[in-house]
Specification:
Helix content: 25-40%
CATH architecture of the largest domain: Alpha-Beta Barrel
Number of strands: 16
Number of domains: 2
CATH class of the largest domain: Alpha Beta
Distance between the termini: 18 Å
Number of helices: 13
Strand content: 25-35%
CATH superfamily of the largest domain: Metal-dependent hydrolases
Structural class: alpha/beta
Length: about 375
Amino acid sequence: METVLTNARVVTANEEFDGTVVLKDGIIGSVERGQSQVSGAEDLNGNYLIPGLVDLHTDALEKQMMPRPNVSWNPIAATIAHDALTTTSAITTVFESLAAGASVAHPERNETLKPMIDGLHETQNKGLLRGEHHVHLRCEITNPMVMDLFRDVIDHPSIRFMSVNDHAPGHRQYPDMDYYRNKHMKNYGFNDKEMDTFVAEVQEQSKEFGPKRRAELVEAAHLRGIPAASHDDRTAEEVELAASEGMVVAEFPITFEAADLARKRGLKVLAGGPNLCRGGSHHPGNLLTGDIAKRRSLDILVSDYVPISLVQGLFKLVSAEFGFSMPEAIAIGSRNPAIAAGLSDRGEIASGKRADLVQVQNVDGIPAVRRVWAKGERVA
């Protein structure tokens, strides 16, 4: 079956132009300048036609499956609802960021990890989803259960990306001990003595067991051909460790020193769309995604916890404040993450690439998703 999309502002990897894109058998057959006169061609009214976005890190599925504390939703129903949200946010390839090793605030995640992965896989196999969904396994090395959880799921076919996390106080995201204590005492209801015990336990897990767990996690990922990311790198030493381990992405670097060195060592710098759209992080001391972008150090943007923030953030990069061209901006949410994840068949509008495409109307700088095609089929 052939579909002709015309009168579109086509955004390729290197340029944008008024043109026509022909889809055939799930693949982009041709990309041409000018309008098509073919009968039945679909008129995109001069709107942008961009590649379907590739989101390497979203926490949104967990929120659908656990919409309230101690409330679990049917995993198939939750996944279908989540898929509708991501698809209409211009995302056609989704990496669900699921935690192996829960925080104190969400102990139920230790029990729900495998059911979530199984539910995702089942809905995908039954053809119930519009986009393509994979798992980004988020491994918390300070959690005593992390290795058991990891070994239980690592050979699941849905797992296609992994990150190594260490949220112990005193380094990486939490160098400020007072902030860490105040935050966790408020969130968990700890008193001073309980907080002292908790801090000591987490730090022990990080210092005594973290390095061995990290090495085993990274080795297992490499053996299976799963790309891996470091997380919350703050210092040159942390970046050098990630580079020596063969990491491909530096997720949410905490300092410019870490971000710049990561790029020098060949890692792609990843940052969050909500941070870019809001103009700040909900964690004090974190870098602004916008500042990383202004230094031209931003390689990959992700939706993090707000699916629409990915496409919204990419269009914000084209504003006068940041000065990216449309092809440069769109690549940060499509081609770059696709390459990092080893998905060479998608992420750009070019002949022979997968026909994942999105029609976007620019409404005073806000992207309105009008239509979406996945593997050449209209899905939204």
